[in-house]
Structure formats: C-alpha cells, structure tokens
C-alpha cells in the first residue's frame, strides 16, 4: 500500500516537473470534467445474486448496480509543431468518482433485510501521445486524437454490507476494502476552440480500458464467518465524455525572447538595438517611424517571434490611423456636397463612413436627417398631386429622391410625369382648337377639342367650346341657305330676260356653296342647250 502510494506520487511529481522543464509557447493545461461509464462486472453480478436471493425470501429488493461516475481531469501538454500537424506529449491525471451506491432491501414489515453502501474511486495517471491538426485562423479550431497508458490507483474504495433477520436481529456485518494498482489506458478524440492566445474551450470523448485483480481486505464487524482477505476482479472500463477549459502558457521571459533576436542575426547586437528602438517609438505613438525601424530589424534578424508580433501591432495602429484619416476625409467631402445641396452624393459618403465606423455620430445624424426630409418632401408631393399642382409636386418628389428615398418616390415621380405629359398634350390640343375657332374653321376646332376630351373627359372648357363651335356652324348654315336662295332667284331673273351669262354665273356660285343643288344644275344644262341652238356659223377670212 505505502509503496504504491510512493510510486504514484513520484510519477505524478516527475511528470509535472518534466512538463515545466519542457514548457514553451506551445505548452498548455487542460481542465476537464464529465461523465464516464464503468463496467464493474463482478460487483454487479454480486448485486444480481443478492437481489435473486432476496426475492426468494420475499424481500422487497432493489439493490443498485454501479454503472457510471463523474470524471474530473487535468492534463499537461507539450506540443511540437511540424509542417503537417502538431505532435503532443502529455501527462494525464484523471479521477473517476463513481456515484455512491447506498441501497437497502426491506422485509414486508418495513424492517431492513440487507444494506449495501459502496464507495468506489480511482485515480489514473499516464503518459500519452496526441496528433492534432489546427486551424491558424479564426475560429482557431484544433481536432485531435490521442492514446495514453498509465496506472490506476484505488483510494477510498470500500463497501459496507449488513444483513438482518425479519425480527430485527443482525445476521452479519462486514466492511470490505480494496487496495492495489492496475494498468490502464485511454483512447480519445476531440476538438479544442481557442478564444484567443491563452484561453479556449474543449470537448472530447473516448474509451478507458482499466481492469485487473485487486486485494480485498474484509473487516468483520459482527457475525462474519468467511475469509478476512481475498482477491477480486475490478473493471473500471467504459466510455467517457468530457468538456473543459484550455489554458496556454508561455513562461519564457521577455529578455530571453529579445535575446533570440540575435540568434540568427547577421549582426548580433545591432538587430536587438534596432528592435528596442522600434519598440520605443511604438510606445511613444510614432508608428510610421517605428515601422521603418522594425523593417530594418527584420532584414537583419530574419523571422523572429518578437519582430513579427511588434510589426503586426504597428500595422494595426497604422491601419487604425489610416481609418481615422479616411473617415475625416469622407465626412469633409460629404459636408461639402450637403452645403451644395447635392444630398444624394452626400448620403453616399455618409453611408461609406458608417460602413467603416457604425457608431459615427455625425454620419448617423445626417443620414437620419435625410430620411426625415425625404419623407417630408414625399408627403408634400402627394398633397400637391391631390391639389392638381403637378409642377410643384414634381419638384418636391425630386427633392425626396435626392435625399435618398428611392422606390416610393420614383414611382410617384413617374406618375406625376405621366400626368404632366397628358396635361401638356391636352393644353396643346386645346390651344390648337382655339386657333382654328378664331379662323372660322369650326369643324376642325371641334375635332381638336374632342381629342382633349379623350385625354380628360371632364374638361369643362373643351365641352363648352365645342358647343360654341356647333352654334357657329349652325349660324353659318342659315346664312348660306339665305345666300343660295337669293342667287337662285337672281339666276332665274337673268334666265327669263335672256341674260344667260348672268344666270350661269349665279348658278356656278350656288354650286360652289352647295354642289348638290339640282335646281342650278338643271338651269345650266338648259342654258347650254339654248346656246348651242343659237350658234351662227362664222366664215373666216383668208
């Protein structure tokens, strides 16, 4: 017993010290906890037999088996990076705390028939090897598989058992103690997620193989007649699933790291001096000068962890400075556009600022103001459309678009422009009708105003003007009839007195006004016949 404890403590202490000696920037500690299954076949068979015997004696039995436990674990890992994967050497320290099995079987009267109180725990310490593949960019996930072997040592392993007669008398009472060491091994796989360079979260699962013979010491408390010592088989094998915390350490001092700068340097001492000067400039906030110096150090010393890290820090600061300068420039340009009332261009630049700095108050203020102005102008345009003030409404909706309102304002603008086009066409046709009317071309004037009514059936002026033109046409028709009647009478008078030329002129005038006048047509035919009959043959001179 004492020798086993000494060996166990030596293994644990030696492994821990070895890990610290090897400690580097790839050393980490894992603290896990989870659930684990256990077989414990011999113990569970004993429980089955006890339950069967109790049933034969009409005892209310339900003695519990041992099947699972809690598994806290602490690991010390030393990782070796290769071009293809990470090879890890680790010391595992695992505790298996089996859920206590305190159980009672009772007689029908309610008295205890059998009491079993088992308390089993085991500590495992082993060395192993792990293969990992890491993602060096966010979210920094590492998948791994490992195997380890070591020793299981049992502590606080005991079982109390007592049986009683139905009348209450004690039959026997014993306490059993297990103590020895057996070999064990684990096979596991999992994934680690590092939140940053120091802290991470891990999940893993695996199978533990741990079985062997142990010594059992039996202490007789009352009535035991069996042996006081024996050998038993225990089996703590089972699957486990754990989750926990990953902590990475780097105990190399800053001075040691700076000393490494000279290791591969072409000019030892010079590169370290330039690095320190670059670091001093960085701390003073002179990032551009610091960048020049760190590049000089990099040329002399080559790749070095401190140089690379400081260069990244300088680049981040320069990038931040460039961002501030860019935001300032964009805001100035946006303000210039805003003063010139080129709101669409200003809005575009303010939005670009927000894409860089989502909390920029100045850009956010003017974008909100533009949104409010756009809504205000849009509502104003709608009201003006309802009032029939299309030209004014077009100005308002165009201003809403300039402020940044797109679809709704564009749709309203198209609607207003369509109405304006119709209005302009309607006014043009109306005015052409007025010109025709003034020239006395009443029928053509009516045609123009009828086209106006096709566009706008409710145009009152067009309807009114058509009525006026119709009246004018009616008046013209009456005057025409009077003139025709008068000329026909005059033609008849000329005809009666033999003035055929005068009659012909009057008839031709009537036919120009009314080509379908049959009376004049007939008179012309008669005059032509008379003129034919009265022709005299004329003898021409030589």
For this entry, give a set of tags:
single chain; 542 residues; alpha+beta; Porin; 5 domains; eight-stranded antiparallel beta barrel; six-stranded antiparallel sheet; disordered N terminus
Order of strands, widest sheet:
1-2-3-6-7-10-11-14
Structure annotation, total helices: 14
Helical fraction: 40-55%
Mean pLDDT: 79
CA-based shape: elongated
Compressed to H and E, one letter per element, the order equals HEHEEEEEEEEEEEEEHHHHHHHHHHHH
Distance, first to last CA = 178 Å
Strand count, sense and barrel status of the largest sheet are: 8 strands, antiparallel, barrel
**What is the fold named in CATH at topology level of the largest domain?**
Porin
What's the number of extended β-strand segments? Answer: 14
Task: Outline the structure in words.
It is a single chain. The chain folds into five domains: 2-249, Porin (Beta Barrel), CATH 2.40.160.20; 254-339; 343-425, no CATH class; 426-477, Tetratricopeptide repeat domain (Serine Threonine Protein Phosphatase 5, Tetratricopeptide repeat, Alpha Horseshoe), CATH 1.25.40; 479-533, no CATH class. It is α+β, with helices and mostly antiparallel strands. The model is unreliable at 1-25 (pLDDT under 50). It has an eight-stranded antiparallel β-barrel with strand order 1-2-3-6-7-10-11-14. It has helices spanning 2-21, 41-56, 254-260, 270-283, 287-301, 305-339, 343-356, 361-386, 390-403, 407-438, 442-455, 460-496, 500-513, 518-533; strands spanning 27-37, 68-81, 86-98, 101-106, 112-119, 121-134, 141-154, 158-164, 170-179, 181-194, 199-209, 211-222, 229-235, 238-249. Helix 8 runs antiparallel to helix 9 (390-403). The protein has 14 helices and 14 strands.
